[in-house]
Structures are given as C-alpha cells and as structure tokens.
Amino acid sequence: MKIIPNQKCYSSAGNVLHLSKSGTSLPLSTEQGLPLTGELLKEYRYFIMRLENTTTETLTLQVDFYERSKSVNEEANLSIAFDILPSSDVTVPISLSYLNSQHLFPPRTPGRLRMMVSGKPLLKESVAAVLLKSRPFFEDRKIQLKEIYLSNEEEAAIHDPRTLIDEFGQWKLKEWPKKIDSRKELNSFLNEKLREAEQTNENLKSEKWYHSSGNIKNLSKTGWFHTEKQDGKWWLVDPNGRTFFSSGIDCINPGAVTRVDVMMPYIIETLNMMGVSKDQKKFDFMLKNLKEAFGEEDWWISWAKIIKSYLHKWGINTIGNWSSVEFIKWAKMPYVIPLDAFVKDGFPRTENCIFRDFPDVFATEYEERANNYAKALEPFKDDPNMIGYFMRNEPEWGFVYNLNIAEEMLATPFLSASKRVFIEHMQEKYQNVESFNDAWGLNLRDFCELCTPLPKASILSISAYQDLYDFSKLMIRRYVEIPAKACREVDGNHLNLGMRYSYIASELMLSGSEYFDIFSINCYQETPLNKIEEVANFIDKPVMIGEFHFGAIDKGLTATGIKGVPNQGERGHAYRYYMESAASHPNFIGAHYFQLNDQSCLGRFDGENYQIGFLDCCLQEYHEMTEYVRIANQTVLDIHEGRKTPTTKQARQIPPIFC
User: Which CATH fold topology does 3-159 show?
Assistant: First the structure.
C-alpha cells in the first residue's frame, strides 16, 4: 500500500522534501487521498520508508500517530523517531507492533541509527491520523523522500553506499583542524601525550586531586563518603571529614565501539584496507589506535596514564558510571558504580513485566532476584574510594509522562501478583462489587472480572483515577524498597545514589525516595537548577546529576546529542554555566558528564553517534571546551560554600541533533 505526503513542501518530481528549520509536519494519506487510519494499518505489519539524506548532518525524522480524540495540532499519542546518517540512502522499516509502546529502543536495522518510541500504548485500530515530522534545525534543508508504503514484510536496505569512516575511526566526509591524516602523525601524538602524562602523574598531590575542602567545620570523619546537612545546605563529605564536590565523567574506558554488522557497506572498504575481518558485529577504532601506538603489551597502561593526566588537568575528581573497573583499581580515585551492570540479569526483573521493564513487584520472584542483585556489592563494600552505587539507569517505564503504572497493570493479559494485591485492596476498600461499580462506573459481576484486561481504566471515573494513582505509588515504592533494603543488608557503608531517572515524568517517581541517600536524575538542560528545585520541593535529599552533555558539529561527528551548541568553545561555556549555576543550589552535591570519548561516527550498539566527548577517537582533547571545564571545576566548591558567585555567561544554543 503506497503512502503519499500531503503537503506542498513535498515534490513528487525528484522526490524532494523541503524541511523548514522550524520543523516540518506532513499528514500522510493513500494514493486515493484517504487518511492513513487504523482501518488501513490493521491489515499490515510494517510502515516502511525509503529516504536519502543529502545533507551534511544526521537527519532525525518522526512518525506521529493520533487517536480520534486528539487533534493533529496537539502532541501525538505515540511517536516513533529515528536517525539516519548524512550521504546515506536507506530503507527503514517500522514495525507497527511498536504501537504497544513496550519497546523504548527497537533493534537496529541496516543503515539506521537509533530509533525511539515515545508515548502510551496505542491500539493499531484506533489510529485516526499519521504525520511525518522533522525536528527543528539550524537551517532549512532538502532531502529525498523516495517511497513510503505499508507492507507485511520487513524490508530494510542500504542503497548505493559509500565509505564513511577512515582507518582511525574519523568521519571521512568532513575536514576540521587537527584531523589526523596518517598513522605516523597519530603515533607521534600519542607517544608525546604519554611523556607528558608520566611527568604530570609524578607530580600529582592527592589534596589538590580530590578538590576537598576543610572550610566547613564540624563534619564527621567516618572513613566513608557520606552526606551531611548544615545550615540548610547539603554536603557530600569525604572519608576524612572534608567537603567534596563530585565532578565526574561517565564511561572512562579505552575505546569507542562501532556497530559494524548493520553498517557494513559504509565500512567494509576501510576494514579491508586494515586487514580486519568483516565477520564481526563490532569494531573499536580507538583500541586499534592505542595498540598501533604502544603495542599489545603496553597499550592499556599507556592509555591509563594519559587519561589520569587529562582528568587531573580538567579538575575531574570522580570516575563515573560504566567505567573500566581495571582503571578504577589502578587510579585510586573516588568513583561510583552502576550496580545493575555487575549483575548478569541487571536490575531485578520478573518473567512477566507490568509495562516495559517495570517488574511484578509483589511477586516472590522479585524479592529473590533483588537479593541476588544486592550480592554484586560484595567486591566493593570495603573500598573507601567508592562514593556509592546507582541502583540502575533510566528505567524505560519512566520515559512516559504521567504514566499510571497501575493502569497499565490492569491492561495486561496476565494475572500478576500485583494485580491480585490490587484486587484485594479494592475488596477491602469497597467491601462489595456493587459499591466498587458505583465508584468506577463499571458493571462487574464480581471482583474476579478485574483479572481480565481493562485498558485505560483511569478515565472511567475520579475514583478509578485516584485508586490507580494510590496503588501506583505503592508499586513504585516497593519497586525501590525491595532491592534497596537488600543492598543495605550487604553494604552498610556506601551511599545509595538512586535510580538516575531520565526525568521526573510524574510525582509518582519520587515514591520510595526515602530509601535513597542521594536522589539522582539525568538532566539534559542548559542548567539543572529547575529540576533540582523540582525534587527539593517534594523531598529533602541531596541531588546528584548522573548525566548531562553538550555536543557540536564543527569537528568530527554529525550529531550533537541531546543538547546542541555551534562549536567546541560554546561547549565549554555550556559546561561551565551548567556546573556553576547548579553549585549554587543548597541540595546539589555533584554531576557527572556523559561521556569521556566521542561516540562512533557510525553509531554505538544502539545507534547513538554523538559528538559529546572530551576526547575524539584519536585521544585528542577538545581544548576549546576543556579550558572552561577546568575553570568550572576549580570553582564549584567555592560556589557551593557561598564564597564565589557562578558565571552568568550562557552558551549559544542550536537545535539538537539526536533521537
């Protein structure tokens, strides 16, 4: 079934689609002019597009699905966004099964970068309109939209590919200052950095390294990192009883993996030239660069020395999430860990989940897996350099605004332990089914009928909404409480740093926070002040930012990541404004930047390909940025103590390029 964009910005002659810098929205219809509705969609399994990105930056497109109750001028019920590379011509399939919203990040297909599903579950039959949208950009642009159609076969392809990556892992189709041109040049640079690092590391002094301060008196010396509140202000305190502001970087690892299998036509010529087999799923160009410069025996220790020198230069005092455990042991610096990464099955789940990755929290299985999960703390529990552990990162269920998890529970086709407990609560509250029916606007014969799926129950009545809201709060509290208590049993010394929620999509997500020592969120904003205050308005806890970044497109890669600025100097201003403004809040005790290295220009495992690192794939730092990083990290503790004021200079922003 062929689909046609119904908009004057699309020209069927040459398949040219004009995208406005403010964003473009195209209603989709059949060749006969009929709107694309559930009546058509229910006959097919895939929505498929072939398009060519003729621009020089990554392209993000979004397919929006609307129910009859929504106007196309409002936010869509469900959106599916995806990225494709510049100079690429690809066929991208979208499974219509994704309308159930159970998959936040669907698996990659050939030539496509990341895909993301946003919104609550949507029945295919209920779709009343489908729109194709582009996001705001810093200029108008044109692409070729060659075909859109519905199919029952998953059709994915890369058409007329060209080589997009060079032997060092750099984007081949762009030039910039200090781009590496030869292996000799790169080896010379890396060996010079090693000589500098060995001299720097020899002169390191621990007090300067850790950026602790003794200006705040009467803090406890416990031998462990801990938190204290003094005169209305929260402090992170180091083992020696001195204030400590955690300035960290995530993903301190030797490498930046490229996903090869789904991008093979763009990379095969380079792999052949390097003598690398194409029969692999991934390849790491940075690792190859290190081994070429220092040899198989010495590459790791050479890398570690260079990185420790960089961290000292930048004023970074904390090794953040997903970093090399080997480096943590060698560097002897303060660090945090993502606890779920040290468990085979990750954060505790159950065989049947309620929504996305939200488990059946009243099941015995959840408690058993929580106890096993907590055992991963055993190797770390006696290390005073560890600040604490994040329980997990960005639960997928937390990406949906105003999600009522109990409502999703009632819509499931299986009888979960949580659903049984909910039914018991309703029986206890209402005593008989007649009273329950009156309150909820239903006509059940008995409470057992709640065992069958009941979708969108929160809109039935005010009582239904409130009952489901209250039970959602109970479910989320238990979601936190069970594993948090298990962790405390194993390790009573280190700080529970929370869940690193992607954002506070609902007040319900604050449930269970009494079991955290520090409340953590990931905050991709110009400043996190409003988000910190949002948490502080509800709970009296210190707040740590688990992730933030700023990317540009003037050097290297073709996508900015979640926050975009024009160039590397503006990245530096953005970092400084973010950290210094946040340090002025009495609840803020640290932030960790995501991440050390740029991502692969062809995409990591899930397709992210953002220019967000302190370092490029050749271990060259972005000097224009890192100079401001150094200034900020020398200042944040003084700002939090009230002895200095934060900078007021904000970075110039551009619309971000990301999915």
Answer: Jelly Rolls (2.60.120)
